[in-house]
């Protein structure tokens, strides 16, 4: 008479194979989810940062400490000195630092519409700037602050990483970033 194999002997190899395949599928699923988050995060991050900046600008700042004493008038006068050059004589160099094609040309048109002569438009040595930066030559900080105000920009800094020859006679450099 034929004796069938015991049920435990037949099931065991299939159970092991099923468990191994389930673990492999779970690992692949986790890796796909992580890859999706990374790829989508890179595309969504600039939008999230812009929205957060707009929200932060819209909310009034809470002050939990008593107001600071006013600064002496002499230091205020130095910090907010009036620009010595007219807008028409404040020459600007516009560089694309965000990698978006045509962004520097659009920014140059906006600067020209505000009365600033744009000497040249080009690409920055690197891309990936998070914010647009206005850099100024020594002695032109007040013009940079006016330019910042006129174009609603957020970062003003002294000239860094460029030589005077690279400026082509410009007093200010606008390096475009992902956010203004």
The N- to C-terminal Cα distance equals 87 Å
**Low-confidence blocks of residues:** 71-78
Rg: 29 Å
Look at the structure and give the CATH class of the largest domain.
Alpha Beta
What is the CATH fold-level name of the largest domain?
Answer: Alpha-Beta Plaits
Overall shape = elongated
Helical content (DSSP H or I, runs of 4+)? 40-55%
Number of helices: 5
Q: What is the overall pLDDT average? A: 81
Roughly what fraction of the amino acids lie in strands? 5-15%
Q: Per CATH, which architecture of the largest domain?
A: 2-Layer Sandwich
Strand order of the largest sheet: 2-1-5-3-4
Q: What can you see in these coordinates?
A:
With 180 residues, the chain is of the alpha/beta class. The protein folds into two domains: 1-58; 83-176, 2-Layer Sandwich (Alpha-Beta Plaits). Helices cover 47% and strands 13% of the residues. It is built from five helices and five strands; from the N terminus they run ααβαββαβαβ. A five-stranded mixed β-sheet has the order 2-1-5-3-4, with helices on one face. The protein is elongated, with a radius of gyration of 29 Å.
